[in-house]
Amino acid sequence: MGLFSSQFANVVEWQEYRDDVIFWKWCNDEIKKGSRLVIRPGQDAVFLYNGKIEGVFTDEGSFDIESQIIPFLSSLKGFKFGFNSGIRAEVLFINTKEFTIKWGTKNAVSIPAPQLNLPGGMPIRAFGNFSCKVSDYQALIDKVAGIRQQFTTEDIKERILAVIDQLLMRWISKEGKDMFNLQANAYEIAKGIKEDLDMEICKLGIIITDFKISSFSYPEEVQKMQNRAASQSMIGDVGRYQQMNMAEGLAQGGNSGSGMAADMAGMQIGMMMGQQMANQMAAGMMNQQSPQMHPSQMTGGLPPKFCPNCGTPVNGGNFCSNCGQKLV
Question: CA-CA distance, 105 to 126, in Å (whole number)?
Answer without folding.
Answer: 6
